[in-house]
């Protein structure tokens, strides 16, 4: 296989696109991030990376909580707006028409129109360089019935997740390719 040698850079793509809500009341803000990941199962934790210069950075650090909201494909316009304009200059809730809904466990609101909301309490902050990594413990998850499977769990095919591509573009995910943890049962090996 012929491969190109590239300079070191962030290249783990596609990356999930999330809109994080942070702050409270009239200070509540939204920030689009493509740097978010699950990082621990017990207790459940996820991490988001935010530049210290961003308006949302001090809101997350000061409140000690945030909500990770997963958009569906129809929300790309709002997602892009929240990632393009600063909360210092715009009321992103008003500009996008998104609705702040009270969260169950944390002070920042969740986005009513987004099908998945993950409420997190800030547990760790790790300065990395250009970004700080905020690790949040998952305290509550809200999933719209329209994106839940028969088992009540999130069905990725129904969600129509949005991902960020290497060429500064948004993409939708396709359907299921196969079931995980089945390789050994189908004659696969290590």
Automatic annotation (TrEMBL):
The GO terms describing molecular function are: FMN binding; oxidoreductase activity, acting on the CH-NH group of donors, NAD or NADP as acceptor
* Segments forming domain Flavin reductase like: 12-153
Q: Which residues form a coiled coil?
A: none
Which keywords annotate this record? Flavoprotein
Q: Mind telling me which residue stretches traverse the membrane in this protein?
A: none
Family annotation (InterPro entries): Flavin_Rdtase-like_dom (IPR002563), Flavoredoxin (IPR052174), Split_barrel_FMN-bd (IPR012349)
Q: Which cofactor does it need?
A: FMN
Gene3D superfamilies in the record, alphabetically?
Electron Transport, Fmn-binding Protein, Chain A (2.30.110.10)
Cross-referenced Pfam families: Flavin_Reduct
Q: Give the signal peptide range.
A: none
Q: List, alphabetically, the PANTHER family matched.
A: FLAVOREDOXIN, FLAVOREDOXIN-RELATED-RELATED
Query: What family is this?
Result: Belongs to the flavoredoxin family.
What is the protein's given name? Flavin reductase like domain-containing protein
Q: Which organism is it from?
A: Candidatus Coatesbacteria bacterium RBG_13_66_14
């Amino acid at each position: 296989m012929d491969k190109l040698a590239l300079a070191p850079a962030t290249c783990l793509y596609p990356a999930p696109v999330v809109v994080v809500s942070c702050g409270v009341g009239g200070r509540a803000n939204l920030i689009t991030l493509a740097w978010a990941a699950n990082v621990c199962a017990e207790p459940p934790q996820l991490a988001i990376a935010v530049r210290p210069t961003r308006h949302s950075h001090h809101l997350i650090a000061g409140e000690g909580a945030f909500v990770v909201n997963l958009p569906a494909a129809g929300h790309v316009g709002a997602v892009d707006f929240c990632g393009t304009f600063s909360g210092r200059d715009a009321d992103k809730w008003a500009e996008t028409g998104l609705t702040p809904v009270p969260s169950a466990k944390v002070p920042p609101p969740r986005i009513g129109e987004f099908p998945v909301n993950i409420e997190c309490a800030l547990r760790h902050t790790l300065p990395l360089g250009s970004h700080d990594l905020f690790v949040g413990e998952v305290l509550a998850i809200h999933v719209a019935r329209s994106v839940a499977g028969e088992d009540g769990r999130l069905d990725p095919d129904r969600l129509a997740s949005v991902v960020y591509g290497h060429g500064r573009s948004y993409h939708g995910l396709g359907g299921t390719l196969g079931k995980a943890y089945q390789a050994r049962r189908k004659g696969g090996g290590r």
